Every structure is written in structure tokens, then in C-alpha cells.
Amino acid sequence: MPRSLRITKIAATPVVVPSRADSIMSPELEDDWSKSPGIGKSTGLSTAKLAELPKYILRVETDGGVKGFGETYRDVSVDNLRRNARALIGNDALDLQWSALPIPHDREYDGFELAIYDLAGKALELPVYQLLGGRCRDRVECSMWTGRRTPGDAGRKAFEGMQRGFDTIKFKCNQHDNVSAWAREVQTRCGPDMKMIFDPNQRWDPYDFAAEEMQKLKRGGFNVLGIEDPVDRKKLTDYRKLREIGLNVVLHVALPYCAYGQRAEDALAGLKEDALDAFNFNGGMAKFVELANIAHLANKPCWHGSEVDLGLLEAGYVHASAAAPACTWPSDIFGRLVREHDLLKSPLTFDGKNIRVPTKPGLGVDLDESAIETYRVAAGIDLEAT
Q: So what's the pLDDT on residue 39?
């Protein structure tokens, strides 16, 4: 192991990796985020446009020669990336508190956390999951995913997922969608064992509308695993009442949306109100494990959420999920199915619906430099330079 891991340079490369044809929405539909509180700006106003927003590949260099790599979420602030780099450069990575880096815990935090864990794991010759407490599983279950669809397309995409080995499909939906018709088509094409998650992103507000949609699904006898954020997530009393319908209600705690008021404490509030059956958590690796451990203590399952990301972030999701006993529901780790590339030399390995947890030191994955050059949209940025 190098005697020193003093951080000497951090650079960022902007990339845009488009979505694959037919991977997000039926072409005749447009997504509408107008009723989703505090979400529109961060998603470019439409699920269909999420892949058009730039991401940054972070490269952290040390005087010991060990490098760590990270990936930001889409649509982040370059000024904040510079702020974080200046705070970290000069520190020895092995002296940092990896679970609480000395930078603001905002949307720009997680990419740096990813890179620091990666280089620390490489230096210590340990996979990142070991730095997070050790793995409790060697495979992480995942779901098929898609945005809004026509009923026929919903059944077709579910069948495509089933052919790949998935037994759960997650749909984005809004107030205009006949999700019972989607569910009927899924059951017709795939049989009764294909589970469904519907995620309105709070757009089934008010309570009466959400209750009616959920009652239709309940009466239809469809295999619905959960309804995620059906109404405004601040209305936890409505969440508790919706649980009485008999379908699982899921609260999404998304720490990258901290600018819109989402906090880790929201998980405690949901439990105190008895407002949920399961959680979708996403955020940094250390925070995910912390939140998942709260769910575990409360005997609630969770899964790892995402923003339809590239390979570095998704590798981080896999490590964090492997270290979290409560992460037993299928996670949102499917970027390679949606985007043209994940920017890895070798993609994360699927066995049917399960991703194998990388076991090499650090994140256990390697960047594909030729792919980064293909999808780079501007020159790399030395984040310390003014």
C-alpha cells in the first residue's frame, strides 16, 4: 500500500450518453412533471429527456499513484464541483472520514464520495462493500424499468424484461395513465408471476384520485409489488390511509433532491406515521447503508433507486446494496438497458434479474476511455484551476 494517498488533482470530463431507441417511453406519449412537487427542474421536465443532460466523470489523483474514479448525477453545478475539489485536494484520502467527507452533502457530493471509496479500496486492496461494513449477498436483484407506455407497449416491455430474466417491472406513470389497462396487458403477456411497481412521482394527488387508481388495481387482482410516492410525499397521513387499500405503499427518500427538501430524516417521519410498507432509497453509498439499516431495524424492505445512470454510479449502487441487509426488493440498476453505453470496459454482469457484486479492489470496474472520448461533449476540466 502506498505510504501516502494525498490528493493532488481532481478533473471532470463532461459526457452525454443518449438513450437507446424505445428504452424510455412510447413515442406517442409525452411526460408531464407539472404535478410532481419539486422534481421538474432536476429531470429536464420529462423522463424522455433525462439522457440529454450532461454528467461528469471525476478523476482523483494521489501522490501515491493510486487513482479513484467517480460519476456525478446529471445536471450538476460545475461551480460546486470546483468547490468540492478545492476542499479535498491536499488531504490524504486515508485520513478522511469516508462516510462524511468535508464537503456539503448536496447533489454534487456523491460523485466525490464514489471516487474516494474507489481509490481507498484500491489502496487497501479491498472491494468497496467491505469498506461499507461487508457484503451480505453476492448478487443484487434488479427490476426491468420503463417510463410511460401505451397499454400494448406496457405488456411488450414487460415481456422483453421477462425474456431477460426479470420478474418485476417498474413503470413511471402520471395522472393521465390507465395503469389498470397496463397491468392487464402485463398479465396477459407475462402471466400472473410478473410483479409491477407503479411510480407516479407524487402525481396521483389528491388522495381520492390515488385511492381510486389503487382500488382498481386491487380489484383487478394484479400482481402489484408496490405504489411509489402516489401523492405529495409530505402528506404522510394520506400515505397511511392508502395503505388500508391493501397494496404496498412505498416512500422514496432521494438525497440527491436535497435542494427540494428531501432529507434522511424523512425515513423516520414515514415510520413514525406508519405511512409505508417499503422504501426506495437513493443517495451516496454510506448514506444508503445508513438509511437501509434504519429500514432493517423497522423490519421494512427497501431497494436502491437511481437516476438511470452510467456504470460507475451503478457499481456504487451494487456495492451499497450488497452491504445492506434490508435491500431485498428489486433495485433500479438498469442503465445499460436504457443508455447506449455505461462507459465501462466490461458492463456489470447480470445473471437473469441479478447483478453480480464486483469483487476486485475499489469499485471493481474499469473505465472505457474510448467510450468516454466518444460521448465527451467538451474538454476535461481541472477542477482546482480558476
A: 55
